[in-house]
Amino acid sequence: MNPRLRLAVQLIHSNLHRNIRLEEIAEEAGLRHSRLGELFRVELGLPPLKYHRLLRLERACELLGKTNWTVDRIRLELGYDHTRFYRDFKTHFGLTPSQYRAHRDTNAPSPPQTI
């Protein structure tokens, strides 16, 4: 993996608790945002902010399955506003966070995850 891309990926992984701007990622990696986007698409198959969003959603799934935290606490832990969290979650998984938790609690196979 390109060393500058690795820096960008590390920054994203360490900032799952908040929204992050593309310019911030690019600056930290020492790249123009267009070059950063190109590297992400070539090496990881998706743009940087989508990668960040998917990691946050996967972290939400992990917390839904392993904790008894409320959905609101998980949402806040990941730095999401209410509407965006529910919309992103339902768009990606086809279920609301509560439905996802109930689905997991029945020991049925989990919905497919992207990353």
Description:
The protein has two domains: 3-48, Orthogonal Bundle (Arc Repressor Mutant, subunit A); 51-105, Homeodomain-like (Arc Repressor Mutant, subunit A, Orthogonal Bundle), CATH 1.10.10.60. It has seven helices and no strands. The protein has helices spanning 3-13, 22-29, 33-43, 48-66, 71-77, 82-93, 97-105. Helix 1 (3-13) packs across helix 2 (22-29), helix 1 packs parallel to helix 4 (48-66) and helix 4 (48-66) crosses helix 7 (97-105). The longest helix is centred in the middle third of the chain and has 19 residues, at 48-66.
Shape annotation: elongated
Work out the strand percent. under 5%
H/E element order: HHHHHHH
The oligomeric state of the chains shown is single chain
